[in-house]
Structures are given as C-alpha cells and as structure tokens.
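Input/output pair, single chain:
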Amino acid sequence: MSEVVDTYWSFRSPYSYLAIPDLLQLRRDYDVDIRLRVVLPLAVRAKETVFDPANLKPAHYILLDSTRRSEFLGIPFVFPPNPDPVVQDFETFKVAQEQPFIFRLCKLGVEAERRGKGLDFANAVSRLIMGGTVGWDQGDHLRQAVASTGLDLDDLEAATVSGEHLEEVERNHERLDAAGH
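Output:
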C-alpha cells in the first residue's frame, strides 16, 4: 500500500504552483499518492489577515522569492496572472465580492481529485494560469489544459453543480487549520 501525502492547494498561490515539480517527482520516484486538498487562497478565506497596504514588504518578498524559485526550476511564472483567479485591488488589497474564477477552479480541482487526477489537473491548470497565458479563461485554453490530463472540462463542470465541492473545500480549510497552518 502506498503512502498518502495531503497537499493543501491554492490555485492562486505561487508556492502551490512552484511545488508541482517536487510533488511530481515525489510521486514518480516513490510509492506515494499525492492527495490534492483544494483550499481557497488566503485573500478570499482570510481577508483580514492578508497583506497590509501600509507594509508591502511581505508581498514584495513573496513575489521576489517566487520569481527566484521559478528561475531555479526553469518554469515560467507570472504574478499576477491575467486574469488573476482572485479579483483584488492591488493598491488596497481589497478583495471583490464577486469572484468569477476562483470558486470555479476550486470546484473543478476537487472533482479532478475525486477522479484520481488532482495533481495532474493542478499541474496543467496552474501552469496555464501562473505560466503566463493571457486570457487563460477565454477560448479553449482551459479546455485543452484539462484534456491534457485525460479529463473533460464539460464533464467536470457538470459534476460540480451541486455545491458539495465547496463544502469539501471548507473541510479542507478545517484540516489545514488543524494541521497548524
């Protein structure tokens, strides 16, 4: 029986995106299953604890650190992506009430994990988003990324209409908190 590694995953986190090569190698080199536990980005789930516009050092550090890591790994990285999965004002860090992208991505990620393709889905979709594909939400970009994992976007979308996928995301938040994050 293989070991299971729970990986708490945000489709907006540079650190989640940049962990992919290591996760893929871990899965490939050892008898390890990577369980994708999709969570909402901090900007959405903990708005009050995110960045302070009066102190931009943490945000700048994350961007600098992420850029260095992507260069080391030799993978493309753009932040913020276009469009950003989280609609947010970068001057005030205020997060918009309406979020057309992140909830959809989270539900799709949960469903992909249920089908045993969570990490593959996260790899393909986050590379599309964080790798710099402008308009990743338009045309066939997302459909092609999903298809590269052996999944069908329409099929995933149809399975996510009930709302139970966001309940699973909430349970993942609880697990993340219980783990001490």
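DSSP finds eight helices and two strands in the chain. The chain has a mean pLDDT of 92.
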